[in-house]
Amino acid sequence: MIEAVGLTKRYGAKTAVYNLSFQVKPGLVTGFLGPNGSGKSTTMRMILGLDAPTAGHVTVNGRPYRQLPNAPRQVGALLDAKAIHGGRSAYNHLLCLAQLSGIPKRRVDEVLGVVGLQDVARKRSKGFSLGMGQRLGIAAALLGDPQVLLFDEPVNGLDPEGILWIRNLMKKLASEGRTVFVSSHLMSEMALTADHLIVIGRGQLLADMSVKDFIAHNSADFARVRTPDTEPEQRDKLSAALTEAGGHVRPEPDGALRVTGLPLPRISDLAHEADVRLWELSPHSASLEEAYMRMTQGAVDYRSTEDQRAGLHAQPPVGYAAPPGAVPGAWPPPQGAAPAGYPPPGPGMIPGQANPYAAPPQVPQAPPQGAPGWQPPQAPQQPPATQQPPAPQQSRPAPDGAGAPAAPTKHDSEDAR
């Protein structure tokens, strides 16, 4: 079991963790949640004795981590999957850890098989992908067959098969009576994996309860109601009836209604009394992500804003007219399927771009004589009589007989005489 009492950590003027108290009990997968910068990694480092708390204390199985005899045999942790010497193979990396902790050599092959790295055990870890490095870090945490395990973002870089594997692995470890403490930003994974949640924000405890209770306390269930789309007057009629009965009605972007404060049977009865046909009447329960966002919305330090792209787009050339089917005001033409009117792309061209080698547009032909709009052709203007054509430039013979010599001009012949 992990127990923190009044845990506080300050870095100069910044307080990363403040008066944090909680228990991580065996037999459960306990999720550790919080926004970026909330102090989750700092808390895990203090549990493992890597950082000394400014105030308070934290114990593992009743003792501080540094006082545990042969701690790697009792506590396994994955905090940074990249904390590996790149020149060592996966096998040698685990072998070094095993020899330092008095773990039998055969255990190295066992954990390599558990994480699925037995085929690359002799390869240097610097060539591992992010997911392979994550598996190697998990193998290091399992090396001593510990009773307490800490994982910081264990699914980072794993493929779907790897995510399913680590999810089942953590559940299996907890079912064996071990203490499993896992930090993650993936709410969907926590909803499927964790049994209990500890949520912190800005270094302070926000929640310490089961996943089911957390969702129930931080979300409001609602009913989704839809009337025929072709009859908007029925939606307005139902909305008025539900509001009069004490419900709270909010329109959805797709035309449906979100109703809170009334159970589904009551909504159905009100619709029947108002003679309104329903196309949909379904309950909706909030997800862990929705409950988490609702609780931590006031403890987020880093908020994104909308991207203001004004002035960043290239302007269309003067006289440009969008072809039929193009998005109005879109320039340059989007990549992908070219709108109607664009020539087909040639070899090596990006679809959707105009072909620079396409034939020039044909000049419209003049109407035949006698047709409406016909005008007699105008004679070309002659240059003034005084204007003389420019004198031709003198040609010089090519050097070294590279070409035939030019014929002498009149002036050259007179000079020769």
From TrEMBL:
Locations of Low complexity compositional bias? 314-329, 393-408
Query: What keywords tag this UniProt record?
Result: ATP-binding, Nucleotide-binding, Transport
Matching SUPFAM superfamilies = P-loop containing nucleoside triphosphate hydrolases (SSF52540)
Q: Name one Pfam family in it.
A: ABC_tran
Domain ABC transporter, by residue range, is 2-227
Cross-referenced Gene3D superfamilies: P-loop containing nucleotide triphosphate hydrolases (3.40.50.300)
Give the region (Disordered) as residue ranges: 306-417
Q: Does the keyword ATP-binding apply?
A: yes
Entries under PROSITE patterns matching the protein? ABC_TRANSPORTER_2
Q: Which domain of life is it from?
A: Bacteria
Alphabetized InterPro entries for the sequence: AAA+_ATPase (IPR003593), ABC_transporter-like_ATP-bd (IPR003439), P-loop_NTPase (IPR027417)
Full protein name: ABC transporter domain-containing protein
| Family designation | Belongs to the ABC transporter superfamily.
